[in-house]
Design a protein that fits this description.
heterodimer; A: 434 residues; mainly alpha; 0% strand; B: 158 residues; alpha/beta; 18% strand; rod-shaped
């Protein structure tokens, strides 16, 4: 059943992709499969949220996915064209994704954030057929992070339903599949921009961040948030090349909505990406529209949490008082130490990315360099701000979360190396493209 | 300053140098990515070890030897309590103080996950009360009392 459920999710995602992206299919096989799964997950999360917020049973989610699949098919079968260049990188991405998913199939819910937050919310969603369980509202009983949106819980909850009573392995597989989808998108996008060799390097490097493979085996939202954010960034990067195909930004709006629906960091990553894009784009309006669409998708969940008096434990009126924030600025040294300690290869990666950036900029791709560097800088600055604001004990927070929340900036730095170097190796100085 | 021919030659050399450096960097990235795969394999293996816990009544047990009592509690609740029952928790911190009890921080969260669709609550109106690591309050004569070792006692009001 779980295989059928995931195929339905993929078909719905491909349908949504097709609706957002009529005309010639730009994603090839690898990009199509990766973006299809990501978009399907977003559709699942949004439909589950809308029905849950409205107090309705969740079964129409299946109809929504089926409807999207049918609507996409009516628009014409997606045919691979220019995206076929993913080639070896696409195969490598598929193989790595399958490896991660197979390993995750034996996973059990044994880690704190799994049973205290993500798997708990997912299973409650499934068993209560909506948001009726106190797990979603009972702050007095100290259920954690009631403000967290429903993408990962929806994936867990539907895996729970589709796997008929053996939910733990399938729930883990959903997270690993999102990682695999990200790898496929990396293969497609980098191949399209910088060629197949750079794409193969990018796919391999995407598995390289410290503890990435480990994180794909957990029912946590860090890998999903990074997967959606990386897809968003790469879609923006491909669009930025000539700023002609706005369909890519429509799809980026969907993947950004996915990032926003994972956890607060996902919203930060999306914001950082679109802000950096707005900095370098010649046409800012489509970028702003994509960002607004992603933010709008969050509205139902934001309204529901507000209506139930649910606020973020970390970012709220009390923690964001300017006087308090000023007082807490002396934490910056500890934050720097904790964040850099959690990313042991940062120096080498940053040096290599800086060299690739210099080569890319000289080859006429300065805007892309600024997009990537700006995204990393804004993401890290945002994370540091969250650590300044947190009312929780800082040292412990840094120890358990710094390596996880820095996954996205770490991935962007690593992917920048083959992407920019590959572009520089390919570039003709007579025709700078971005 | 030089002639156009010389300038073109210099530009071509510069471009070749950049292309070479960029190609080398792509190859370095490729090799770096390949070298990262064994570490990813180790991480997956370690992850499997983390999941390799004792399973009692089909329920993975975490939190050390004392927590081995919990699967019996979970089984009991699943069998005997009406669906969606609310269970009030009392532990050494009082009602709804989720301080670490037994072994392993967050054990009550783990228990909550396993007990779904039943939920732990602070409500004094809950029919069921779970005493964790503390002796139960005197209960009514016809109350249901189920003991799962020293640390977990479930009391149901008549």
């Amino acid at each position: 059943m779980i295989v059928a459920g995931d195929l339905l999710l993929l078909a719905g995602g491909l349908g949504l992709l097709r609706l957002a992206c009529p005309g010639p299919w730009p994603f090839g096989v690898a990009g199509g499969l990766g973006l299809g799964f990501l978009c399907g997950s977003v559709a699942l999360a949004l439909a589950t949220t809308l029905l849950g917020v409205a107090g309705l049973p969740l079964w129409p989610v299946v109809l929504a996915l089926g409807g999207l699949a049918a609507a996409g098919l009516r628009r014409g079968r997606p045919l691979p064209d220019g995206g076929r260049t993913a080639g070896l990188a696409g195969v490598a991405a598929g193989a790595l994704g399958a490896w991660l998913a197979i390993a995750a199939a034996s996973g059990r819910v044994v880690l704190n954030d799994e049973y205290a937050i993500w798997a708990l919310r997912g299973r409650a969603l499934s068993l209560a057929d909506g948001l009726g369980s106190p797990v979603f509202t009972d702050a007095a009983a100290q259920y954690q992070h009631l403000d967290y949106p429903l993408l990962v819980p929806a994936l867990v909850g539907w895996a729970d339903r589709w796997s008929s009573g053996a939910p733990e392995g399938p729930a883990h597989v959903q997270v690993a599949l999102l990682a695999g989808a990200m790898l496929l998108v990396v293969g497609w996008a980098v191949a399209r921009l910088a060629g197949p060799l750079a794409a193969a390097a990018a796919v391999l490097l995407a598995v390289a961040p410290t503890r990435f493979a480990e994180m794909t085996q957990r029912v946590h939202a860090d890998v999903p948030a990074a997967a959606f954010a990386v897809a968003t960034l790469l879609l923006v990067a491909v669009w930025l090349r000539d700023e002609e195909d706005d369909r890519l930004l429509r799809v980026a709006a969907i993947t950004a909505a996915g990032a926003v629906y994972t956890k607060n960091e996902g919203a930060l990553y999306g914001l950082a990406t679109f802000a950096a894009a707005a900095l370098v784009a010649r046409r800012r309006r489509p970028v702003a529209l994509a960002a607004a669409a992603a933010a709008l998708a969050y509205a139902p969940w934001a309204l529901w949490t507000r209506a139930h008096g649910i606020h973020s434990d970390v970012l709220n009126r009390a923690t964001l008082r300017p006087s308090r924030l000023l007082d807490e600025l002396d934490r910056l040294g500890a934050i720097w130490s904790g964040m850099s300690g959690a990313w042991p290869t940062a120096l080498w990666a940053l040096v290599a990315a800086a060299v690739a950036g210099a080569l890319g900029a000289r080859a006429g791709h300065a805007r892309l360099v600024v997009l990537l560097a700006g995204t990393v800088a804004a993401s890290l600055a945002g994370l540091a701000f969250v650590y300044v604001a947190t009312p929780l004990e800082l040292e412990g927070q840094l120890r358990v979360s710094a390596y996880r929340v820095q996954l996205y900036p770490a991935l962007v730095v690593l992917l920048s190396i083959p992407l920019l170097a590959g572009l520089a190796a390919r570039a003709s100085p007579e025709s700078p493209r971005s | 300053m030089g002639t156009p021919g010389v300038r073109r030659t210099v530009e071509a050399r510069s471009r070749r140098g950049r292309d070479t450096a960029a190609t080398v960097l792509v190859l370095v990235a490729l090799v770096g990515g390949l070298l990262g795969l064994p570490r990813a394999r180790r991480e997956l293996r370690d992850g499997r070890r983390a999941s390799d816990v004792a399973v009692v009544y089909g329920i993975p047990v975490i939190g050390g030897p004392q927590a081995a009592q919990t699967p019996r509690l979970v089984q009991y609740v699943r069998r005997h309590l009406p669906r969606d029952s609310r269970i009030r928790v009392v532990n050494s911190g009082g009602v709804c103080r989720r301080i670490p009890v037994l072994q392993g921080q967050g054990l009550l969260y783990w228990l909550q996950y396993r007990l779904l669709p039943h939920t732990l609550t602070c409500s004094p109106h809950a029919r069921w009360t779970l005493y964790v690591g503390v002796p139960p309050a005197p209960s009514a004569p016809r109350a249901t009392v189920a003991r799962f070792g020293r640390d977990l006692i479930l009391v149901g009001a008549p």
